[in-house]
Amino acid sequence: MPGVTGTAFVIATAAKALLFFTLAMLCVMLATIVERKIAGFIQDRSGPNRVGPWGILQVIADGVKNIIKEETMPAEAVRPFFLLAPALAIIPATILFAIIPFASPLPTSWGLVEMIVADVPIGFLYVLAIASLGVYGVAMGGWASGSKYSLLGGLRGSAQMISYEVALALSLVPLILLAGDLRVPEIVSMQQTFATGPPTYAVWFVAPLFVGAFLFFVSGLAETNRLPFDLPEAEAELITGYHTEYSAMKFSMFMIGEFAHVITTGALVTVFFLGGWDIPFWSGDNIRVLADGTVIGDPTWWKTILTLGMFSLKTGLVVAVFMWIRWTLPRFRYDQLMDLGWKFMLEAVTVYILVIAGAILVIESAGMEVGPLYALILTAVNLALAALLFFVMDRGTIIKGAAHGARYQARIGSRETATPAVPLEEGREARQHAR
Amino acid sequence: MPGDVKVVERLQQEGSYVRAAAKGMGITLRHLLDPNKKTQQYPDEKWELSPRMRGTHRMAVHEDGRAKCVGCGLCPTVCPVNCIKLVPAEDENGERYAAIYEIDEFRCIFCGYCQEVCPVEAIHLGVHYENSEYTRERWVYDLERLCEQDHPVTALWDPSDPASE
Questions:
Q1: Residue A338 class from Cβ within 10 Å (0-12 exposed, 13-18 middle, 19+ buried)?
Q2: Which distant-in-sequence residues (6+ apart) come within 8 Å of A97 by Cβ?
Q3: Which of A125, A186, A315, B125 could form a disulfide with A266 if both were Cys (CB 3.0 to 4.6 A apart)?
Q4: Domain ranges of chain A
């Protein structure tokens, strides 16, 4: 069945855009209540449960409250930018949905409708381009508020998001090496049928690119300003940072933007590493639409619904992990954050690209076709790399003190008043003795 | 880092992040899946109150509905925060009664002295809370309102052990 063309294409695209935007906003609403529920459960509370069944109407109550609250405008604020910032926070998060394939193509009487708003040939680059726009809302909101707290939050936000963007982009390079295409639906198809010849097994890239998935996930956490990377907000230090001065619906816009960003990142993790809308252990959903419009497979409407459900399930799980992490890990200190971003993630991801590129080169020059064994070798390489990565991360790389090691020793040695440093082992013995 | 920040030198294994984080995630997961939530669903479930809990006042009444108060004036005297207003009067039979008897529950510290001092066991504290009002005036309970209260009265001591031994 050929794809839709002409007027039908325009109408189909508009309908998809409207549908997916509505779905995304509904998911954002749902995410706020799920976040509060998970927060409650983790702390042995019940979470909101008064408004509607299981408290599900709480989001509507919150929305109504935010709309009827007073809009404040600080005297020091720069009005145009102050008004623009919440919009800039929400737009990049929502337009990222455009290149995410949600489900298998839907056959209609006008032609085959692909369940993706914009199937651009460079979808992957679009992700990187739009993801970097998210920083403008934070930085602009922080600066335009005319408040010191907000400014600090905005500065931290811009520094953090720009730092982790490098790792975010680079962690996807091995994915491109493996998928061999920048089209996002093609990346999904590649995971469904990991073979050049006839379809064999589904290989979700989380296995052969485990380290890449991990690094992407961590950078994604940093990009969305979620704990443990929520320095721009930092309630305890900056009284919610860049949106300190925002009230009512403008504040709500920042929140919607953050949750939309979380859901988008969850969807990206799903699409890039968890097989997108692929239903595991079933080859009936292996429907591939090539760039020239050729369709391989057998699209039906119920497959579209099933795969949409699968996609939502996977995305929901990733988002739940985001929230689980948020309510577990404490915030990094600023220098730890920068150290992790520039001195650890960047190196790790660069080495990783080299190793994976080398591994792929070796495998392919050995004449091996893309297939299960290919994936298995890469998985083994990744597990070894992951073990190494976690070993290094676990050895004081992240939470060491800021002024540690030789620099610190040199400085306290140069001061006359400095107390002589007790050798570590002796100190431990003394402590244990005292105990 | 600026200034002389004291930084504790840690052993390598004490600077663990991955294992520590994984352990923390395990703990939160256990609590996440634990169905036994600690929240008390307050308006639906309430605390079991002690019989000695001192709350809203209640005036004991005779069988004909008159308050038992004889207007002796002991309770406003003993009250440490002056929250009781009493104007005694005498009827045609020469019996004293309280013409005006008001307790400002907002001001009351619920010490229970009034109940303890009352010679005719008229004024009592009660095992009752949840008395919110929209205005402060509504917090001043007059005699009629005090007589209308029907919650259990406070036991000032354990009846089986009156001397608190």
A1: middle
A2: A20, A21, A24, A117, A264, A267
A3: A315
A4: 6-398
Return the structure tokens found at A341.
């971003």
The structure tokens 């200190």 sit at A333
What is B55-148's CATH topology?
A: Alpha-Beta Plaits (3.30.70)
Closest chain A residue to B26, measured at CA:
A328
Beta-ladder partners of B55: B126
Indicate which of A327, A328, A422 best probes the interface with B, i.e. most B CBs within 10 Å of its own CB: A328
The sign of the CA dihedral B70, B72, B76, B78 is negative
Domain ranges of chain B: 55-148
CA nearest to A333 within chain B:
B1
Which candidate, A143, A326, A342, places its Cα nearest to that of A230? A326
* ipTM, 2 dp: 0.71
In chain B, the residue whose alpha carbon lies closest to the alpha carbon of A38 is: B32
Residues in a beta bridge with B153: B126
Instruction: Report in angstroms the alpha-carbon separations of B3 from A403, A408, B6.
Output: 11, 12, 9
CB-based contact A324 B21, cutoff 8 Å = no
Residue in B13, B21, B38 closest to A45 by CB: B38
Helix (H) or strand (E) holding A107: strand A106-108
Tell if the CB–CB gap between B32 and A46 is shorter than 8 Å: no
Q: What is the pTM of this model?
A: 0.78
Segment (H or E) for B141 = strand B140-141
Per-residue pLDDT tens listing for chain A (435 residues)? 666 777 888 888 888 889 888 888 888 888 888 898 889 889 888 888 888 788 888 888 888 988 898 888 888 888 888 888 888 888 888 888 888 888 877 777 777 777 888 888 888 888 888 888 888 888 888 888 888 888 888 888 888 888 888 888 888 888 888 888 888 888 888 887 776 656 667 778 887 888 889 999 988 888 888 878 887 777 777 777 788 888 888 888 888 888 888 898 899 899 888 888 888 777 777 777 776 777 777 778 888 888 888 888 999 999 999 999 988 888 888 877 887 888 888 888 999 999 988 888 888 888 777 777 778 888 888 888 888 888 877 765 565 544 445 555 555 555 444 444 555 556 566 656 655
Q: How big is the A-B interface in CB pairs under 8 Å?
A: 82
Q: Which of A421, A217, A202, A419 is nearest to A318 (CA)?
A: A217
